[in-house]
């Protein structure tokens, strides 16, 4: 059991003074009942609300973001002000320590995990993790089975050797000279997917990450929207 005002200051992102004011104005509920006494002891099973919205009392938070184009995978904006960071999309959450796990290029969209769990973030981005990441790419050029073989064989670049990747050609458009493909890699070098396509003579015009490990992008999320992971999804990350 813990004092209500202490819980509010820890998980409600407010000072003790603010918590006192919120309580006084009847903006705090416990199990849907208005409470004005900050000394009230509550248990882990009690549901606390602020202005009708239940607060998450879990120490760590895990979000799935459908990253929009034009945002950088960072906690800070571009120094010249040319692009906002993805954490700016979470300003209303007022959660300290949020960061993007890994990175997506500025113009790449799709699944991006955002959390304040540093240990998990480090584990998922460790080179030894070998977590599969799947993207849907639209490219200039007509892909062929030979290109799929090239991806599967791995590719050598000046600065690194890409591990074998899986390329599935979804469709080709001879008239427009374009293709759509699904590609899965187990690492995440700088501009890796784009560079691999260039290696087979195709330029990526759109790239979207649809899965990372066992975590799939929620198709109901529009670009820029996010939601908290379910307990089942968090469990998959921990496996």
DSSP E strands, number:
17
Unreliable residue stretches: none
Helix count from the secondary structure assignment: 6
Rounded to the nearest angstrom, the distance between the terminal CA atoms is 31 Å
Oligomer: single chain
**What's the CATH H-level homologous superfamily of the largest domain?**
Pseudouridine synthase I, catalytic domain, N-terminal subdomain
The major beta sheet can be summarized as: 9 strands, mixed
Helical content, roughly?
10-25%
What is the CATH-assigned architecture of the largest domain? 2-Layer Sandwich
Q: Quote the beta fraction.
A: 25-35%
Which class do the helix and strand fractions yield?
alpha+beta
Count of folded domains? 3
- Gyration radius (Cα, Å) is 22 Å
Assign the CATH class of the largest domain: Alpha Beta
The shape is elongated
CATH topology assignment of the largest domain: Alpha-Beta Plaits
The topology string of helices and strands comes to: EHHEEEEEEEEHEHEEEEHEEEH
Mean pLDDT: 92
């Amino acid at each position: 059991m813990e004092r209500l005002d202490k819980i509010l200051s820890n998980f409600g992102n407010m000072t003790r003074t603010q918590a006192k004011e919120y309580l006084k104005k009847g903006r705090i509920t416990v199990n849907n009942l208005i409470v004005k006494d900050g000394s009230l002891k509550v248990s882990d099973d009690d549901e606390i609300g602020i202005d009708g919205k239940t607060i998450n009392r879990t120490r760590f938070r895990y979000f799935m973001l459908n990253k929009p184009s034009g945002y950088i995978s960072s906690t800070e904006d571009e120094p010249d002000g040319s692009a906002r960071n993805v954490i700016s999309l979470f300003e209303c959450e007022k959660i300290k320590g949020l960061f993007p796990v890994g990175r997506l290029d500025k113009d790449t969209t799709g699944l991006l995990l955002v959390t304040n769990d540093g240990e998990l973030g480090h584990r998922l981005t460790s080179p030894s993790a070998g977590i599969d990441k799947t993207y849907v790419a639209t490219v200039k050029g007509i892909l062929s089975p030979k290109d799929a073989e090239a991806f599967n064989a791995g590719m050598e670049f000046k600065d690194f050797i890409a591990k074998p990747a899986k390329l599935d050609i979804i469709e080709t458009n001879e008239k427009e000279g374009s293709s759509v493909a699904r590609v899965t890699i187990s690492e995440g070098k700088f501009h890796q997917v784009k560079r691999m396509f260039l290696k087979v003579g195709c330029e990526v015009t759109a790239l979207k990450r649809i899965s990372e490990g066992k975590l799939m992008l929620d198709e109901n999320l529009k670009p820029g929207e996010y939601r908290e992971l379910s307990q089942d999804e968090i469990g998959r990350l921990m496996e």
